[in-house]
Amino acid sequence: MTISQLIYVLAVAEHKNFTVAAENCFVTQPTLSMQIQKLEEELEIQIFDRSKKPISLTEIGEKIVKQAKNIVNEASRIKDIVDQQKGYIGGEFKIGIIPTVMPTLLPMFLNNFIKKYPKVNLIIEEQNTEDIIQKLKNGHLDCAIAATPLEEDFLKEIVLYYEPFVAYIPENHHVSDKKEIQVADLDMDNILLLNDGHCFRNGILNLCKNNKYISDSHFQLESGSFETLIKLADEGLGTTLLPYLHTLELNEKNKLKLKNFQNPKPAREISLIYPKKELKIHIINALRDVISGVVRGAIAFSDVEIISPLAKK
Hints:
- The chain is α/β, with parallel strands linked by helices.
- It has 3 domains: 3-84, Orthogonal Bundle (Arc Repressor Mutant, subunit A); 89-161 and 268-305, D-Maltodextrin-Binding Protein, domain 2, CATH 3.40.190.10; 162-267, D-Maltodextrin-Binding Protein, domain 2 (3-Layer(aba) Sandwich).
- Helices cover 43% and strands 22% of the residues.
- It is built from 11 helices and 13 strands.
- The strands form 2 sheets. Strands 3, 4, 5, 6, 7, 8, 9, 10, 11, 12 and 13 form an 11-stranded mixed beta sheet that branches. A two-stranded antiparallel sheet has the order 1-2.
- Helix 5 crosses helix 11 (281-298).
- The chain is elongated.
């Protein structure tokens, strides 16, 4: 039995297809099939039921896959231990970032991180929260940056920052002359949201429900980007809420249409998330320190009371 054989088994268990598994393992399909067959012969059992489409695990195969994940992870941990002992911070590191955070946060920290840790090869993917959770579970991401809490038992969450929501109010709106507003001031029947599937959208829905101002049915106009929401608001089609960091890049004319909320300010919790058994903790800590350093200067709300609409009530 070899580590490589176990890696091949895990790939087939995930993709339920020998050809696709081989492609993801960067070996030929005959090589992968032969190694799995050798392992089955050695153990005198069948790991996969090849008669089914797609291929499925046998009862004993499910138990083997569960143990194989532990063995492969522990084998990888040996190199991680050595790297930490040597103080080496480098190698490939895969990180997922949700779409409503990626455009604003990535430019803020990436250059600093690359300069400070040039031996780390960051592979960055933009993914929605659901895909991020699945990829972390399958070992295809080392960590991710997402809105929390997620309350997944296998994940650890380290809060990076709390990002307040800011209202974008078009001219001639009934609260456009106010310096600060409350959620109750907004016309929630005409609020513009991101498409379903965005956690920022869910945060706004939860915020409104928690304040008992609106039901789901009132949300009619939805878009895929904040830029589109702003343009729709400028056309008089409604108002919208933006994450604070996104407002920093608006032009001066649009910034005049922003309204901060009174305390307690609605905000979203943004965290670094990773499996509790993650190996590359030294890189995760380095990433956390760099991001916290740059965000601390951008979001100076230490004296502001905030609430998170994503949190369980």
